[in-house]
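sorry to bug you again but im stuck and you know this stuff better than me. theres a chain ive been looking at and ive put its sequence and its fold in token form underneath. id like you to explain what the token line says about the fold, in plain words if possible. anything you notice is useful, everything is just below.
___
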Amino acid sequence: MDAHTDAARYHVHGQETPDDAGKPGAWKARTPGLEGAGQKKEQQCHLRWPATLPRSGVCAKKKARDRLIAYAHPRSDWAIGFLDEVWWSRFALPRFHAWQDPEHPIRLVEQSWKKGDLDPKALACYGVLWQEGTAEEPVRDQMWLRFVTGRPVSGTTLQFLDWCCQRLAQQGKHHWLLIWDNASWHVSKMVRTWIREHNQHVKASESGVRILPFLLPKQSPWLNPIEPKWVHGKRNVVERDGLLSAHQLASRVCAYYGCTYGPIRPAREIYNAKPLKESRGGQKPALHGFERER
């Protein structure tokens, strides 16, 4: 290997040895072995990029996610679920493209809030997308949705996790590979404590569903396949010229995802976990069910 090729492999401080490669501030690299050989400085090899470039952890996280999926999918007592939350707005309009007739163009008319409208401006919704098969050939044809009062918080997250575990236990599942992002209501001390005590109780009693949470890296929505589900859903439930009520919006969401309405079933406070926090109105956040049937 000649000196020029060798110089392109590492960065050094000025004329120092290759052992200094990778240190902060190593912006230049001269060709080693050519100093004093008669070349001018302009003829020597200079590399003008940083020696220590930060590497993203997205690829490593994706590989770890795929390894867990490969471990879980051949086991019949394991469930693979991608969890996320979304807001369904009654006023915000999605951005999309559509074919239209020149004589009857499609236009979205923005609506404004009117005095006396008692419905919330947006509905918060928890959702989990279940996957079967490998990471290369996934089958994702089942979703569970639960609308909630207020906004996503740790207490509501615990209710949704408990509700999903009860449903999975009825299907004969014993382990849940939970893949979600690192939102504050996912990584809070309250949620982490509940999951730990929940798994301890399941292990001691040998009944129930253990949760194996896996956090996705920041700003990587493409690693959660439920994200495009939300985008397509918002484009299909939008009202072009008019304002939907909260019940009409929830009904359209239910119809698009093929869900059926379930009764309000407050989750149980179990496994000696901390009590669920109450909202400002003095009531615990309620879960309203829309769950998809096979």
Observations:
- The beta strands are 78-89, 122-133, 138-148, 175-180, 210-215, 259-262, 287-292.
- Helices lie at 3-7, 58-72, 154-170, 184-187, 189-205, 226-237, 246-257.
- The chain has two domains: 1-54, 58-292.
